[in-house]
Amino acid sequence: MRSAVVPPWFVVKSLFALLRGLDRLRNTLTPPPLRLMELVGGYGATQIVRSAAELGLADLLAAGPKTIAELAAGCGADEDALARLIRPLCSLGICRKSASRGAFALGPLGEYLRSDHPETFRATAIAAGREQYDGMAGLTASIRRGGATFPERQGSDFFSCLAQREESGRHFADSMAEISRACLPAVLAEYDFSTIRHLVDVAGGTGALLNGILARYPQMAGTLFEQPSIVARVESSPGQSARCRCVAGDMFDAVPAGGDAYLLQRVLHDWDDEGALRILANCRRVMPSNGRLLLLELGMGGDDEQFVRFHADLLMLSLFGGRERTDDEFRDLLDRAGFTLHCVIETRSPLRIYEAFPSRWGTE
């Protein structure tokens, strides 16, 4: 596992406080019509970055600066149209003008769109601009009815849609792995997994988080539980820990037994309370009395939260009818499923760790 430096807590808290302060100052000093123009034009940045990722511009520029003609030839694009895309990419810090006349190079942010970068976010840029982007287009209807509108817009639910669109499904799975790898150092810095013998990662995607934990704790065994299509892909890919077995299935039917700890990362936020309770009940059913449950979720707090949490909450509503939950809502949900919330651990990432143990009274 690639080592990463986790900044001290005071640095993280000071940075977020500074950014929130700058946002408030910007809102105060910028004339309201102009600020609203900036906000409603945010969709443009999403699609511009998505196009750069899909065209593979960062990979083409990884070896050094190139002219528009060279880039167009490399990605099969129209030269004039590509030149028009490069201009805003330079403004966003994805690209930059090179010292060589007429050539362009990668900017600081552009490095993270390279497919071979160890901390790449290329798949995330693509996934955010596809089905997730379209899901937010139905937000007004979702607010009116209080439920998902993605199935109506696309003709099937989100995960069925990804299963039908192989490329989109692959980008979404890779995006989840990218986000897991980005949050992993912060999770490992805040939580001690050393007493866990066997960790079951429910709906763990391609196993980025589980394999990262196994790499830190060589005494631990792991089970990656996912849909058959994802398991088939994971089993044929390199880099999986020899201590990680893959099991295919549906978490709404059952989850694998044998773990003394069960991990769900950004799973429950996809579902309403009824769906979340079914998943939790299946975990409780196979968990030993001395087992533990670990939920890695964004969580919701006060009105001064990071915008990413508010955005995620509304995205879950539009896509699935799900939600980001407060600590009290998690406590109530866990109690109904036969768990007791022991603690909530902040991490130096957007994720919070909710640690729970089986209640003595079990499930009813």
Automatic annotation (TrEMBL):
Any Gene Ontology biological process: methylation
GO MF term (any one): methyltransferase activity
Annotated O-methyltransferase C-terminal domain residues: 139-339
InterPro entries: COMT-like, COMT_C, COMT_dimerisation, SAM-dependent_MTases_sf, WH-like_DNA-bd_sf, WH_DNA-bd_sf
Domain O-methyltransferase dimerisation, first and last residues per copy: 37-113
Pfam families xref list: Dimerisation, Methyltransf_2
Keywords: Methyltransferase, S-adenosyl-L-methionine, Transferase
Family annotation (Gene3D superfamilies): 1.10.287.1350, Vaccinia Virus protein VP39, Winged helix-like DNA-binding domain superfamily/Winged helix DNA-binding domain
Transmembrane portions of the chain: none
Signal peptide per UniProt: none
PANTHER family per the UniProt record, alphabetical: O-METHYLTRANSFERASE CICE, PUTATIVE (AFU_ORTHOLOGUE AFUA_4G14580)-RELATED
Entry protein name: Methyltransferase
Record lineage: Bacteria, Pseudomonadati, Thermodesulfobacteriota, Desulfuromonadia, Geobacterales
